[in-house]
Amino acid sequence: MGEPGSTKFQVDLRRHLREQKVERRLIELICEIAEASKYIINSIRTGDLGVAGTSNLYGEEQLELDVLSDRILQKRLKSSGVVSSVVSEENNDIMQFNCENDVCYSVAYDPLDGSSLVDVNLAVGTILSIYQGDNILLPGRQQAAALYILYGPRTTLVYSTGNGVHEFAMNQLMEYTLVKENITIDGVGGIYSPGGQRNLYTSGTEKYVRSLEESGHKLRYSGGFVPDINQVLMKGRGIFMYPHLQGRPQGKLRLLYELNPMAFLIEQAGGAASNGRMPILDIVPEGIDMCSPVFIGCREDVAMAEKFIAAED
Ligand code: F6P
Ligand code: MN
Predict the structure, then answer these.
(1) Atom 16, ligand 1: which residue's CA is nearest?
(2) Among 82, 92, 285, 310, which one has the highest count of C-beta atoms within 10 angstroms of its own C-beta?
(3) Candidates 113, 245, 256: which one to mutate for ligand 1, based on the most atoms within 8 Å of Cβ?
(4) 205-248: per-residue pLDDT in tens?
């Protein structure tokens, strides 16, 4: 796509959604989220880096930026008129909003994933999972859409409504314009991104990671889930994992806010996402705070992880 000011035609997000024949209210919702992200960018760039003095459902200390990003999104979703239920990683309850339409959506989101990386100026992101209707506690396969916004050197938005994965970049006018359509990833990759302390890995994961290293995979781990997944999608190869650990059998990442949306995007790109034993998208959530181990990326790499875990002693 051309730079702003050039004569090259740019496809913006709304136009792309229309061309994809996405349901009208879902278009409104995704565009509203894209608007909200502009305010989140501003708070990342200029906001206070201090702690808010509160903690979330997982006992993690909330930063002022977490709370602010949450408020920005919540307000936008509420006023959109197309959202009935909302749940956020930074909030302890499912919120019910007034939806004035015959078609309504529910949203689960992580407003600022990786927020503790802002003070060291690494990339962070917003992750969203969207369902039609007002039930959020559904298997991820039933998502109507999934998207993330990555705040890196550039701001990008990646979405899927179940019809491929598409990347947009924010231009100088703060509009999202199409960069890549129908993104696909290879069957095997040469990159691995391992989360969690290695000395707490169980035997199956440890053997799996060693096999990746022996076959020449390169280590690329930023500590931010959004940039790490974005790397897999945009390079078209790689595997990210945050496995079950000794003393932490469910790993760290949250099913509703982090894993389901990313698993939806990666599957749409031809990859796979597993908890080591079954697809992430088939897990029936037991609660809004459910966590799960994850192995996500190239299909054959994920299948190999499952093999090592099945043989675990
Ligand atoms: O929200 C969780 C998160 O910050 C992710 O962005 C990231 O993948 C993960 O935690 C990193 O965890 P750790 O610091 O344990 O590697
Ligand atoms: Mn997070």
Answers:
(1) 195
(2) 82
(3) 113
(4) 999 999 999 999 999 999 999 999 999 999 999 999 999 999 99
Whether residue 33 contacts residue 147, with contact meaning beta carbons closer than 8 Å, is answered with yes
| CB of 204 shorter than 6 A to ligand 1 | no
Model pTM score: 0.96
Provide the token pair at 54: 């509160």
* Distance from residue 191's CA to the centre of ligand 2 (Å): 22
User: 73 and 211 in one domain?
Assistant: no
Question: What own/partner pairs with CB < 8 Å and gap ≥ 24 does 85-91 have?
Answer: 85/134, 85/135, 85/136, 87/136, 87/256, 87/288, 88/257, 89/56, 89/57, 89/113, 89/254, 89/257, 89/258, 90/56, 90/62, 90/66, 91/56, 91/57
Do 301 and 188 form a contact (C-beta atoms < 8 A)? Answer: yes
Q: Determine the pLDDT at residue 296.
A: 98
> How many domains does one find in the chain?
2
Q: Does residue 6 belong to any structural domain of this protein? A: no
Mean pLDDT score, 90-100: 91
Q: Is the CB of 195 under 6 A from ligand 1?
A: yes
CA nearest neighbour of 49 among 157, 121, 140:
121
Pocket test for ligand 1, best of 119, 225, 257, 291 (most atoms within 8 A of CB): 225
The CATH number assigned to the domain holding 211 equals 3.40.190.80
Q: Is the CB of 113 under 6 A from ligand 1?
A: yes
Q: Express each pLDDT in 150-177 by its tens digit.
A: 999 999 999 999 999 999 999 999 999 9
Range(s) of the domain holding residue 171:
13-180
194 lines ligand 1 (CB under 6 A): no
